[in-house]
Amino acid sequence: MNCAKPEYKELLPAYLENGLGQADRLRIEEHCRSCEDCSAELELLRMLAEEAVPDPGEAFWAVLPGRVRRDAETKRTPTPSLFDRVFGQWSLPRLSWAAAALLVVASLSWVLVKSRTETTGPLPTTGLVASIDETETVDTGQLAELSSQEFQAVSRWAENAFVPVKEAVAENLRETSERDLSEDLADLSSSELDRLDHMLKQEKKSGAKYPRTSTLGDYSG
Amino acid sequence: MDEDSALLDRHAAGDREAFDELVRKHQKPLYAMLYRMVSDQDDAADLLQKTFVKAFTGVGGFERRSSFKTWLYQIAINLAKNVYRDRKVIQRCSLDDVVIRRDPKIVESLIGKETRLRLRRSVVSLPEKQRLTVMLRIQEQKSFDEIAGILGCTIGTAKANFHHGVQKLKVLMQEQESSKPAENKEPASADTRSQ
């Protein structure tokens, strides 16, 4: 039979916890003596409250904080990246990997620069200045981004690559000194010839030496 | 500022001992609740450690809108729910267990032990929210306000779940009482399942 006074049931947990005042405690006890439903419920709750829990022992309690901290710190350690998981088994030190990566970058840079030079073709031996003007300006900002090893690699390449250019310049000068300028001078106007003659005389006075195979006097007038 | 908040502040400031103190302070009540949820010592111990580890690693995100204790109970209950469901609530409630759990001075008669076993079986048969509410109110002595915070419901819902849970417990106990002759033929150690 259900209790007709549910307000007593609401107080049963507090009664079990000794959370009621003296007056309320007495009211509950008196009610339970006459109410089978509330009495059974109080007994049920008492059994639940008294259900014992086995103690894992002092050793367990003592080590738990340390175990928690260790476990938490392990979990906080970042998980290895896919790269590390794949290549981490290779026991090369990080510096070796860095050196290898640098070598690859330097090699690729060299191949790219080299192939570009080959596409452009060798510099012509005549009209050298014009060819140089047409060449793209070197971006010094990009050079600044190179590592010292890469920069050395590019320097070595540049040294080798410009050998033909230097030889071409020297060859051009040699040819100029040996060539007969008659045809070239014939294209000049008289005023240009006068000015050139004047310049040469001035230079001669100052002691400069130029290779020449003919005098300008023959063409003036 | 309460003691837990002060310890959390110390922990945030780099005091390694502060979290240890929090663990020591809450470990026993939490373990008792976990044991009552899963009815297994090893599982309860494992869940207890996982609860604190989760709290330790997630304490940065704890916004202190509830008390640290309520937050801990929320973590523990959520972890235990998974174990409870994964195991399909196999309760190893043997008579021997009941005897061991009791203080030898107040060991009751065999009838009393059987009553406790039936109670245990009835508790695990309750719907989850009712079971948790009854457990928190009676065994953990939480107020309905605290229970509402832990289970994420209103105080009214917590009170209703408690009322329905207790009424259902009584019915389940009576049902088991009426099927007692058949039960007595079973061996003393028995597994119970629910859900």
Write up what this structure looks like.
- The complex is a heterodimer of chains A (221) and B (195).
- With 221 residues, chain A is mainly α.
- Helices cover 71% and strands 0% of the residues of chain A.
- Chain A is built from 12 helices and no strands.
- Chain A has helices spanning 6-16, 22-34, 36-50, 58-76, 82-87, 94-120, 128-134, 140-145, 148-161, 163-178, 182-186, 190-206.
- The longest helix of chain A is centred in the middle third of the chain and has 27 residues, at 94-120.
- The radius of gyration of chain A is 51 Å and the shape is rod-shaped.
- Chain A starts with 5 loop residues before the first helix and ends in a 15-residue tail after the last helix.
- Residues 125-136 and 211-221 of chain A have low confidence and may be disordered.
- Chain B is mainly alpha-helical and 195 residues long.
- Chain B has 2 domains: 3-86, RNA polymerase sigma factor, region 2, helix turn helix motif (Rna Polymerase Sigma Factor, Chain: A), CATH 1.10.1740; 101-179, Winged helix-like DNA-binding domain superfamily/Winged helix DNA-binding domain (Arc Repressor Mutant, subunit A), CATH 1.10.10.
- In chain B, 72% of the residues lie in helices and 2% in strands.
- A two-stranded antiparallel sheet of chain B has the order 1-2.
- In chain B, helix 2 (16-38) runs antiparallel to helix 3, helix 3 packs across helix 4 (68-86) and helix 7 (128-139) packs across helix 9 (155-178).
- Classes of the chains: A mainly alpha (221), B mainly alpha (195).
- Chain A binds chain B through residues 9, 13, 16-17, 40-41, 44-45, 47-49, 51-54, 56, 60-61, 64-69, 71-72, 75-76, and chain B through 16, 19-20, 23-24, 27-28, 31-32, 35-36, 41, 45, 48-49, 52-53, 56-57, 100-103, 115-116, 119-120, 123, 134-135, 137-139, 141, 163, 166, 169-170, 173.
